[in-house]
Amino acid sequence: MAPLFPTTGILQDVFSTQTRFDPHKPRPSTVTESTYEPPIRRFSAWSAIDDVRLKAGALGNEAQREISEASSAARARTGQIELYSAKYYAACTFGGLMACGLTHTAVTPLDLVKCRRQVDPKMYKGNFEAWGKIGRAEGFRGIFTGWAPTAFGYSAQGAFKYGGYEFFKKFYSDFAGEDAAYRYKTALYLAASASAELIADVALCPFEGVKVRMQTTIPPFASSTFGGIGIITGQEGTAGLYKGLYPLWGRQIPYTMMKFASFETIVEAIYGQMPKSKSEYGKGVQTGVSFVGGYLAGILCAVVSHPADVMVSKLNVNRQPGEAFGGAMSRIYKDIGFGGLWNGLAIRIFMIGTLTSLQWGIYDSFKVFMGLPTTGGAAPPPKQTANLYVDGSIVREGPLGDQGDGAYSSGRGGAGNIESPHVKPTNIGNQKGDTDIVPETALREPAAGYENYHTGRGGAANVHIEKHGETGEHEHEHEGLVDKIKHKIQGKKE
Length: 494
Fold this sequence. Notes:
Blueprint: H1 8-15, H2 48-78, H3 86-106, H4 108-119, H5 127-138, H6 140-143, H7 147-176, H8 178-183, H9 185-216, H10 225-236, H11 245-273, H12 283-318, H13 325-340, H14 345-369, E1 395-397, E2 435-437, H15 465-468, H16 481-490
Antiparallel strand pairs: 1-2
């Protein structure tokens, strides 16, 4: 009869890893090694972001290569452009033409809404509502109403503005002299920019008048730029093209003065906070600094020039034929009040900030393209001329005191600069007296009648030897205020 429960041997055979016949011999494994080999991964993980990044990088590198080749070709054609030469001013003029012409034309939709809201603040509640209404009534082309006179006018203005600024900045700097130009550089920026804008606005004014009338009359009073010029001159004569010149000067000259002076100051401050000097950074960083400085300067420009901008728009639309300039301004101001002068300020800050930053970016990029330095940065200190006294690092070596060897100076300060009054000699025995070590940089060439003498700061030795002799005995002569104060405090050696 078979047992009901498994025996000990059966349990050991089932659950033990060893056989019951040889407990020290491991049982052969019945599991066969798999021959499966995973397939080689032929495709890496794909990312749309990485793909876009790689393509953008490739396009950027290709564009940079194309620009470098074009820049090299342009430089080869124009030759080396020297600073402040005729070629330099021509390059700056063309750069200004592109900077202002392209940017003002690009923001024509913003300018259109701004001008219409300045004339009628209740016409639109906001920019998007305005563009929607204009687009439905006049189509997409209507949103760019006035782009042609904008392109013509601001291209001409930009050419005279930037080219003129570079010219007048150099002209006034040379006129003032190197030292005064450095000390009063902000005043120089203001004068140069005002002079340039005075001329630039004469070129802008006819096109600005056509643009404002096209943008503020519905439907536009003319379909083309020169057609509008013909209509105005036919009705009002040539003077009709310039009836907005005075308010245009009132708007643009303060604007441009703030634009250039603040830009130069801001860029100089930015480089002052950076760890390296401007020349140590690449052109990309320098152009980026120009962009940031331009935007910050543009905000200040918008605030300063906005009231005059509103008045220009009003005068171009509402000034009656033959009406005096002052009378027209008084009448318009009574209608709109002080608050009305600030209509559309927010949109103008955005527009002018964007415009100014793009203009400086384009202008300086073109200068880099032509192999010229970007605008702004820390101004170099004035060079020292041969007529100025220099610290020649003159050293007085030897024991302290009056050694009886004549007048001397030991450079900056010190008892030696006043011939050691009240200081007793300190010679001990055969100890030698003190001697001057005067470097060549502190010597002047000898001339007839006297030997070399040094030009360190202060000291009796800064005078001709032939006048006072080698003993340091001075003649009584007229003393200045500084000398009187010095002798009063320290005592004068007789």
